[in-house]
Amino acid sequence: YQTPLLHGIFPWLAHYDGLCYQVIPMASCVAVALGIDYDIFLVSRIVEYRMLGLSDSKSIVQGVARTGGIISGAGLIMSLAFSGLFFSDKLMHQQIALTLVTSVLLDTFVVRTVLVPALMMIARQWNW
Predict the structure, then answer these.
(1) Under DSSP, is residue 109 helix (H, G, I), strand (E, B) or coil?
(2) CA–CA separation, 44 vs 87, rounded Å?
(3) Once rounded to an integer, what is the mean pLDDT over residues 86-113?
(4) 10 near 4, Cβ under 8 Å?
């Protein structure tokens, strides 16, 4: 909100100098809760494949492949739901919307699809 990057899309932001103090705690709580939910779903599927006797790498690949579409769809739906706050007249709601949409999309398409599987591949036996 302090840089002019969004002023072309949201010109009324040019007159504001920062975030409301309530935005970060509220958005952080929601983002962590959603991230844990997606992580439990992904890791529980990976554990299921591991208990079936697959190797570490195969169970991680199968778990990500089976849950990837569901997690991506849920992330898109949640980001679309949060983007409704962009149409509010209150600046705080718009700031919460930007923070939540960004965090959900990053969590959905970067953390759950790249970061978690990569760290689990590095850890291998230490996962269990």
Answers:
(1) helix
(2) 37
(3) 92
(4) no
